[in-house]
Amino acid sequence: MAEKKSQLKKPALIGMILNPNEQFKRIQINPIIWYPLIILSLISMAVTILVAINIDYIPSFGMTEKDIEAAKMVGTIVGALGTLIGLPVGYVLYAVILWGIAKKAKSTVTFKQMFSLIIFISFIRVIGQSINQMIIVAINGDQDHLLTSLNYFVGANGVLGEILGVIELFSIWYYILLSIGLIKIAKLSNRMSISISIIFFCLLLIFASVQGAIEEYHVEHIIGE
């Protein structure tokens, strides 16, 4: 009876920091979705609001102080709602992709288990963003350079800056947990689980490179004018 009760224990978000292996066991037996998803969505929305209200808007085209405040308010509301809606949708799409890959590999993992896994390991990223942004606001730092990223120490811009910004403590931690979770819950091989994590991390680097290249183009275009 005691063993059954132990098996039915719900996975805990904070447990992903203290004892992730135990949480993976619980997710496999009792994959929960709603309470952790709501908590992560609310925390992410709060971080988005914190960032938005601390952005310095540069007046342009004859904007008054009231116009700037109105623009900041609209930006904050749109950002908050976008996060509240976009975050769960992003988790669902990511879970669908990973679940599809796992099923191709003949895994018996259910979609609910995969979705629960994605939500719980995402706690690491959300906490990382929260810590970074709170410290940045406190020290009036640059919101574009996360304190836990490699680019914080280099201070590069453009393509290199975006790539170094992705090489970040909590992001690496996230992908390590993803590998372990795929091994423990989806029962994929060590090699396949690690390969999946590396591929997705490389895709993130490619996306960052493209974003950096676009920013460099815009900067050069503005200077050229």
From TrEMBL:
Q: What is the lineage of its organism?
A: Bacteria, Bacillati, Bacillota, Bacilli, Bacillales
Its transmembrane ranges are: 32-53, 73-102, 114-139, 159-182, 194-214
Topology versus the membrane: Multi-pass membrane protein
What organism is the protein native to?
Metabacillus bambusae
Q: Spell out the protein name for this chain.
A: YIP1 family protein
Which superkingdom is the protein from? Bacteria
- Start and end residues of each Yip1 domain: 14-208
Q: What is its main location?
A: membrane
Subcellular locations according to the entry: Membrane
Keywords for this protein: Membrane, Transmembrane, Transmembrane helix
